[in-house]
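Recap from last week: sequence in, structure out.
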Amino acid sequence: MIRHAIFEGILLLRGRTWATLSLAIALAVPVAVGGTALTFGLWAAPLLRGSGGAVTVEVLLRPQRAAPEVDAWLKAQRRKHPDWRIRVVPAADLSRRLSRWFPYLRPLLEAEGTGFVPSLVEVTTARPEAVNALKRDSGVLAVGPTTSLHRSLERTSARLRWLVGITTAILLLSAGLLAGIWIHLELYRHADEIAIMRLVGATESTVRGPFLFAVLVTGTVSGISACGMNLLFARWLSGLLLSLGLPAIRTSWAVLALQILVAVGVPLLVATITLARHAALEIES
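Predicted structure tokens:
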């Protein structure tokens, strides 16, 4: 029975290549969108919780300052502002950010190294406006914006959560409807063969097996494609986040497994319902 389902299912897929690809794409897109949104949400959740309402302001020191002067300046600021969390960005990280922000500096940074790169300090505080006072310091070259990137991320993610959720649900419903139509048309295309099989005593599992196998293959291809889209998007977005001083996005294996499960489960559920309804109609007639 399994061999029959696999063999007939392969013939079914070959006979409707373009329809199968259309169904796979229709399933892969919403699953990829939902998986990517879930990946971004899992990445942003600890970041937003860890901000605690604090704001990180970047302070760029003048490149003429030697390392002992920078250390003395840091000690003085920590003594004056005990509520500040002050962190020095490693020169290698700053060089990588500069290469992303200003691509024309990349050859110079690669040739000269990080020796001439100025010191960048990140000040985390609940009162970011107080950091603006450092602009009057002769050793400070520039002070970054005092708006909270974390708060902007929180507002944006809250809005995107609803938008992406509704869009994903609509697209999944559309893909499920397409799967049902595809199965429905294939049942009518093979109506004579199915009728003969039932007349000779074939079981319902034998009749439904090829269709379920074809849907299983299509769903698996869709799930793998959705996982690939998720990984590519996470890699691209990680490069952008690293240039902003934020951690890279890591795609969870649980999210990838969930994508494959949804991509396979939705068309299988729709196909099972469609096949059951078709069998009931055949029995009544």
